Amino acid sequence: MAHYSDSLVKGNDREIALRFYYFPFGTKRIPLTKLVEVREHDMGEGISGGRWRIWGSGDLVHWMPLDTRRPKKRTMFILVIDGSSTRPCVTPDHPEAFRKYLTDRGVKLSSLDTPYED
């Protein structure tokens, strides 16, 4: 049973699944026990901040699964995974519900103080 679910992100008590993470359409599964923290980021209105990156990475650290609706969204969550230098960046359809899903499971949630630059 999923406790958070939208067209691209699904989360239950064990893991978060990110659809369209791998080319061409593979899903990445991240066990909640591997999450060190999740950083919430307001992408703003401009061209920087990740809002216009539909898929991939601009710096080989932050990876964005395919999301054709990302330019219309404002909130990104950057997942810091234990033992990984890559940080998946997700833009859930319902950021408030995703935030609640994370905090209900004891995941450390912080705000990104420095602007994300893509």
User: What percentage of amino acids are in beta strands?
Assistant: 35-45%
Counted by DSSP, the helix tally is 1
Give a quick account of the main beta sheet: strands, pairing sense, barrel closure.
5 strands, mixed
Give the terminus-to-terminus CA distance. Answer: 34 Å
CA radius of gyration is 13 Å
Which regions have little confidence, pLDDT < 50, spanning 5+ residues? none
Order of helices and strands: EEEEEEEEHE
Q: Roughly what is the average pLDDT, rounded to an integer?
A: 90
The structural class is mainly beta
Please estimate the helix content.
Answer: under 10%
Task: Write down how many β-strands occur, each being a DSSP E stretch of 2 or more residues.
Answer: 9
**Which term fits the overall shape?**
globular
Strand order of the largest sheet: 6-8-7-5-9
